Amino acid sequence: MKRYLAIDIGASSGRHIVGWMENGELKTEEVYRFPNGVTRADGHLTWNISALLDHVKTGIDKAQAVYPDIVSLSVDTWGVDYVLMRDGEEILPCYAYRDDRTQDVIPKVHELMPFDELYRHTGSQFQPFNTIYQLYADRLAGRLDQATDFRMIPEYLMSKLSGQAAHEYTNATTMGMIDAATGTYDRTIIERLRLPAHLFGALSAPGTEIGTYKGMKVVLCATHDTGSAVEGIPMEGNEPYISSGTWSLLGVKTEHPLTSEASRQGNWSNEGGVGYNRYQKNIMGMWLINRLRDDLCPDMPFGEIVKMAEESTFEETVDADAACFLAPASMKAAFDEALSEKPACAGDYFRCAYRSLAMSYAKAIQELESNTGKSYESLYIVGGGAKNAFLNALTEAATGKKVIALPIEATAIGNLKIQIKADA
User: Looking at the domain 234-407, which fold is it?
Assistant: First the structure.
């Protein structure tokens, strides 16, 4: 029996999941789980990529100890972040996307290429952490002068396993630098920002084998986790989805990128899928809940948090996508500042956060239907947030769509499906 290994790493944890086909059905087993998170060093938020790589290798060893016949492996993570390389050696630190180092360079980038022009080229939504701004910050800091390559986080990890580097397409589309018409690096952007042209080579498609590690093929999945998550949704027809985790990624498959002015005004993005475009936007997601929990009740199980929220009658909401919630020192303080009425108890904060997310989903669905010219009946929700019946009910009421919540490891499933197809 052929088995495959998906290594799915999020901003707060990672997991190694073995998958195999049995009687026409994909079976999975988690064999290793590990914590992840940003660290603060010299005033900046960074990733401990050495620890990440150690966990990746440890999990592979544990997987092979149980299943020595694994055919291939692949790694997916969040997008936008990367490791600068100099002749195979890391240029550290590896900055995390929530770090504020791009704030001062964003206006400088837009002086060279206004955002409306950038959007016409790429169809990529504005986020202060987009790779384009991170790379420009590195250019101004002189870090690119030494760089011979850069690798997005999953490609970096797989290159350390296989010895072979690659730039995978779906993850590259999170950068804000891919030509929406051609699906390649946009040379106008590279030249306008005076970025080293040698850093931007050919892109590889999901399913590409790049090398081997301990007898297993190392295969590129859709290395941006949302790209793999959408592949993992057992969807009937083409309906909107939410990949619900630290971020809520809400979108729909389209044949081509949509770069209209309405799309730009609504801050919609176009990202690569496996043979299709993903028209979607980022909504703050479970980050709000997790950080409120850190402030208010760090040891309380999430089930009790949901129960408190259900029992609350607090009605005010906030703009869940407001910049003040991106990386506040205190999420509770950020909510206090944004609300006209101060919540009376912890349950009020959580009810406010859940209702605010549902309202953001509803607004996004309305924009989605307007911009695509289509109406949809259902909304698929996968990922950790799909387990939250209270939020699902709020979302169904706010959007008017039938919510189909699938509390499955959609990202790992999509990762595995791509490997299985590549091995066929």
Answer: Nucleotidyltransferase; domain 5 (3.30.420)
